[in-house]
Design goal:
alpha+beta; extended; three-stranded mixed β-sheet
Length: about 140
Amino acid sequence: MRVPVLRRATEQSRNRVTDAEIVGSALGDPADLVESVRAQLGGAEASEAERASAREVGYATLVPWLSRARYLAGARLDEVIVLPASLPHDELSTFALLYDGKLSVTVTTQAGTDTGAVLDLLEDATTSPVHQSSSASPEAL
């Protein structure tokens, strides 16, 4: 199974969460399983130190919010826009929201980012039946 692993790069940084793969069998001794999980989590936390110097890309969030329309003061809400969580040093953050059968994606990025390449990448990722390639790679952004 994959589980979240929390790390904090600095006191000034928001919490950083990555995932780790944990492998075990419920058929053996429970004490051995617990010890194995602890060791695997310890290894995942130790490997986070290597990732601490990685690019600060930001957050990508998808929320399947409501499947039918809602109303406010008697008027139908046709669109809901939520801004992604981001910090000033994040390269790119996205927030996708499913509302009333419509997918909306909001992106925040640094001023120097090639937004055309970002849009091409998002369009390819959301419209291709099988995502095999893109006109822009995340590494190129």
